[in-house]
Design brief:
Blueprint (H helix, E strand, L loop, with lengths): L12 H4 L24 E4 L7 H17 L3 E6 L12 H17 L2 E10 L5 E9 L16
Parallel strand pairs: 1-2
Antiparallel strand pairs: 2-4, 3-4
C-alpha cells in the first residue's frame, strides 16, 4: 500500500487529470482523474446483479488489476470512468460491495472497505482494497537437477 499516493486538494475536474487521487482523501471535490487504463485502480459506478457473462468479465478484469498491483487492487465504487463521483444509494452500494466480494471469492482474494463517504448529493462512494491471498499458487518450482 505504500506505493499508493494520497494527494487530494480542492481541484476542479480539469485539474484532476494531473494528480493521483483517491476517494479516501477527497474533501469537497466531486471528481477523480479519469480511470487509468493500466495499474491496479478500477472505477465502478455500480455492479448489481450482473449476468453470468458480465460477472465472468468482471472477475477477469479484477484478476488483471490484481496482477497489475502485485496482488492488490483498489476499487472506487460509485465513480464513473471519467472520474465523476456520482455515488450510490445505501442499498445500491451494499449490493455493489456484495458483488465485489463474490468476484474476489472466485479469485481467492479478500475485500476490505477502506472508506465510505457521503457526497453532497446524499449518495455514497466507497474505496475498497481487494487483496489476493498468498496461497502459494504463484510460487515457481525449479527442480534440482544437480543433486545439490
Amino acid at each position: 500500500m505504500d506505493s499508493l499516493v494520497n494527494l487530494f486538494d480542492n481541484n476542479t475536474c480539469d485539474d484532476c487529470n494531473n494528480k493521483i487521487q483517491r476517494i479516501s482523501n477527497i474533501s469537497n471535490n466531486n471528481c477523480l482523474p479519469p480511470e487509468p487504463q493500466s495499474g491496479n485502480i478500477e472505477y465502478k459506478l455500480k455492479i448489481i446483479n450482473p449476468s453470468k457473462q458480465r460477472f465472468e468479465h468482471l472477475v477477469t478484469q479484477m484478476k488483471w488489476r490484481l496482477i497489475e498491483g502485485s496482488g492488490e487492487a483498489i476499487y472506487e465504487i460509485g465513480v464513473e470512468d471519467n472520474g465523476s463521483l456520482t455515488g450510490l444509494t445505501t442499498g445500491d452500494l451494499a449490493a455493489s460491495l456484495q458483488t465485489l466480494e463474490e468476484m474476489a471469492l472466485k479469485l481467492g482474494a479478500t475485500v476490505t472497505v477502506l472508506t465510505e463517504r457521503q457526497l453532497d448529493n446524499g449518495r455514497n462512494v466507497a474505496e475498497v482494497l481487494v487483496k489476493k491471498d498468498n496461497d502459494g499458487s504463484n510460487i515457481l518450482f525449479i527442480p534440482n537437477f544437480f543433486g545439490l
